[in-house]
Amino acid sequence: MKKNITELFNIDIPIIQGGMIWASGWRLASAVSNAGGLGLIGSGSMYPHILKEHIQKCKQATGKPFGVNVPMLYPDIESHIQTIIEEKVPIVFTSAGNPKTYTTRLKDHGITVVHVVSSSKFAMKAQEAGCDAVVAEGFEAGGHNGREETTTFVLIPSVCNSVSIPVIAAGGIATGRQMFAAFALGASGVQIGSRFVASEEASSHINFKNAILNRAEGDTALTLKQVTPVRLIKNKFYNEVKDAEMRGASIDELKQLLGRGRAKKGMFEGDLEEGELEIGQVCSMFKKIQPAAEIVKEIWEECRAVQSGMESLM
């Protein structure tokens, strides 16, 4: 039987807050951990000394477990790993790279390691690398995404059938009903990113938070597949990328269009036209900005209510 996620992370509620760049600082991570879930600091948008500062502040803000998300496609990864080890962070989520790169080293220091995957093939590779669990992230998710475009409803049961380690479902999950559905598909817990972007504690710009609210279905799209697939809100920058792709722009041209600091410009500085606005499809369900603890409580209580309702129905 797969190990319980709450036991693996020593948490009360099997909700993991995604480590989103420019949104997941120590305030959000500590708030989610204090609410009973697992908060993650998103290291992808941080210089090494900034990550160290966030880890130390998170320790001061919560006595409960928290982790760091390390996307391996960003610079400074070696320095981040060393900082994580020195600061004795208990849990690390890696993504966008080979899980063999750091898993053994981290586990040798007593750190629980989870890797984010977009297919059963990569889930098995993560298990072989010694990961303690995997996050199976479906096509619906925001931010950097897999090229396979496999939806969460298809991906989760497939990954669960492929590995013996716990599977955490991600992509298109923001409510208790969706969380219960993930359990029904075989997941041991859920990772939620987009909804926590619209939290009071998220470090993302208020312009971005407000732009997320009242989005309709179809207002996001997966793009830049030739470079690194990423799901974005459709804005001026997205339209420029789409036009470039439609005329057959080369990878170098797309990289030049992307430039430097495009995600920071949109999500952290609040430029809604020229910035890169990463968010999941599920944002069409968001109607208000809430405290992170309220989000955790609302999702978990709804999930338990759905469970009770299903038991009576069945």
Outline of this structure?
It contains 14 helices and 11 strands. With 314 residues, the chain is α/β, with parallel strands linked by helices.
Jot down its keywords.
single chain, 314 residues, alpha/beta, TIM Barrel, 2 domains, 11 strands, 15% strand, globular
Notes on the structure:
- The protein has helices at 5-9, 26-34, 48-61, 77-86, 103-108, 120-128, 152-162, 176-184, 194-197, 206-212, 236-246, 251-258, 262-268, 292-313, and strands at 15-17, 39-42, 66-71, 91-95, 112-117, 133-137, 143-144, 167-170, 189-192, 220-223, 230-233.
- The chain starts with a helix and ends with a helix.
- It has 14 helices and 11 strands.
- The strands form 2 sheets. Strands 1-9-8-6-5-4-3-2 form an 8-stranded parallel beta sheet.
- 42% of the residues lie in helices and 15% in strands.
- It is α/β, with parallel strands linked by helices.
- Strand 10 (220-223) and strand 11 form a beta hairpin.
- The protein is globular, with a radius of gyration of 18 Å.
- The chain has 2 domains: 5-204 and 289-313, Aldolase class I (TIM Barrel); 213-282, no CATH class.
- Helix 8 crosses helix 14.
